[in-house]
Amino acid sequence: MRRRILHTQQPVGKINVTPLIDVVMCLIVFYLIVGKLAADRQARIQLPDAGIGAPEGSERAIVINIMPLDPGQARPRILVGDMPVAEADLENVLKAQLAATPGLNIQLRADRSLDYGAIAPVIEACRRTGLASVRLATERSP
Amino acid sequence: MNPLRRRNARAVWDLHYGPNMTPMVDVVMVILIFFMASASVLGPEWFLKSALPRAQAAPMIDPAKQPLRLRIELRKEGASPTVASIDGGEPMPLAAVHARLVDRLATADGAEIIILVAPQNSVPYDEVVRLHELCFRAGIRKVGLIEVK
Fold first, then answer.
1. Which of A34, A83, B44, B74 is the right S-S partner for B123, CB 3.0 to 4.6 Å?
2. C-alpha triplet A84, A85, A86: angle, nearest 5°
3. ipTM, interface predicted TM-score of the complex
4. Among partner residues B1, B43, B122, which is closest to A140 by beta-carbon distance?
5. Which CATH number fits domain B63-145: 2.40.70.10, 3.40.50.300, 3.30.420.270, 1.20.140.160?
6. B44-88, pLDDT tens digit by residue?
7. Residue B120, min C-alpha distance to chain A (Å)
8. What is the pTM of this model?
9. Do residues B132 and A116 make contact, with C-beta atoms less than 8 angstroms apart?
């Protein structure tokens, strides 16, 4: 039986990068969507302006987000990182996180439209936790 | 075309062996633009450090080196603008606090000044942050939030 010999017109050794590009494009689209969702979540908080302050350090921090009030809402939603936390549970959540990772800072990202009355319980929870300070997040103004 | 055929330099160049870099450059450019755009849209954040002092016995230190503690109360009644009162003094607009603090620093004779901010619940959070900013601008580095008694 004669063996069939396949002749190809393509030069051998050329790397086909098309699948690689496909995968990379999929990854980019994925990260774009995730980034957009994360940005949308954060964009809802309008931080107060400040012309002075310190940039974010390299040290790790617990981020407390206090969202603006929705219509008809009496108390703002509090998120520790991305996790919604009730005002009454905040102290325990902070204590648990600080016990797991001692030395963490607190970054307080609160909406500028809120009254201090909405922030005060969070400040008091931080105080009761034993923290010496919090960092108030602001938007850099010229 | 036989790939093992001998060719001249032009023919070898035309075959162009090796990976095509163009799509990779495209991808890298897209990533670069994405990060540049997100950095400019989100914007950088500043942080103002605010202490959380607790009521406790003052440490025994030389009275001459005692820091000067100023309590600034922020009040807001109805639609009227927020006013500040330093150590129970005359209420003043927030904008006037900076000049008053600079005066106090000049007459403090080198003593450290600690500002204790006591905002009422009705005061906008924006104004509390603004008072922190005014203190830092005046050169006071220790600012804390305390409860209104």
1. B74
2. 130
3. 0.71
4. B43
5. 3.30.420.270
6. 788 999 999 876 545 556 666 678 889 999 998 888 888 898 888
7. 7
8. 0.71
9. no
